[in-house]
Amino acid sequence: MIRLIVRPSAELDIREAAEWYEDEEAGLGGQFVDELRHIVRRIRELPSQFPEVGRGTRRALLKRFPYAIYFLLRGEADQRAAVILAVLHQRRRPSVWKKRTRDEGGAG
C-alpha cells in the first residue's frame, strides 16, 4: 500500500462537504466520510485503476455522492505516495483542481 498525503485544501474540501451533508440529514456527513475512506483505501492499494484527467492528475469518483478525489502520484518504488489535492463536487469548475495541480508542480 502506498503512502497518503492529504493537502490542507483537500482537508478543507472534505470537512465542508461532510458538514453540508450532516446539515442536510443527521448521519449523512458520516456516510460521506465512510465512502471517502473506502475510495482512499482503493487509491492506496492500486492508484493506477483511476484514470488520468490531466497530465499526471488522476480522478477517483465516489459512488453514492457526486464528488471526485483528485490526486497525483509522487516518488518511486517503496517511496511512492498519493497526494490528494482536492475533493470536489463534480459540478465544480475543472479550473479548481487544475490550479491546485499547477500549484503542486504538476501539469494540470
Question: What's the short story on this structure?
Answer:
The chain is an alpha+beta fold and 108 residues long. Helix content is 42%, strand content 27%.
Structure description:
The protein is 42% helix and 27% strand. Helix 1 (8-24) packs antiparallel against helix 2. It is of the alpha+beta class. It is built from three helices and five strands. The two termini are 25 Å apart. The relative contact order is 0.20.
Order of SSEs: EHHEEEEH
What amount of the residues lies in strands? 25-35%
Overall mean confidence score, pLDDT = 93
* Unreliable residue runs: none
Strand order of the largest sheet: 1-5-4-3-2
- DSSP strand tally: 5
- Count every helix, treating DSSP H or I runs of 4 or more residues as helices: 3
From the helix content, strand content and strand pairing, which structural class follows? alpha+beta
Question: What descriptive keywords fit this protein?
Answer:
108 residues; alpha+beta; 5-stranded mixed sheet; 5 strands; 42% helix
Give a topology summary:
Layout: E1 3-6, H1 8-24, H2 28-45, E2 52-54, E3 57-61, E4 67-74, E5 81-89, H3 95-104
Parallel strand pairs: 1-5
Antiparallel strand pairs: 2-3, 3-4, 4-5
Helix pairs in contact: 1-2
